[in-house]
Amino acid sequence: MSSNSAHKPPVRIAILEKSESEVSHCWKICQLFSYVLVVISGIATCLAASNVQGMFNSHCPLYANLTIKVELEDYYYSLTVLPYLSYWGPRHNCNWVQFCPVASVMFATIWGTLFIICGRGGNAHRK
Whole-model pTM? Predict the structure, then answer.
């Protein structure tokens, strides 16, 4: 060990806080707006995945090998999925697609609530 390293002061970490008036209101609004967007998009994604899965009688269409019957009637094509001849994807794939948006909605709700309760910004909350 050298003599220079023995005389160095310990490292200090300090969190520097601004006063509440110096914290941008735009930052606060953008933060809350992003949480609202996450909640809306998470709910929309979960509903869309549920509707797609419902169209296939609760079978998972992800990584499925479908057998489709094509019919021509009055110059229009009709496509029909034959569920008894099709191989459906694993159920855990569709569960994962539904879990991720639900988890993001819960995450955004918790952090948005904490931000509203404790997010005044600055060091004014100690007074």
Answer: 0.66
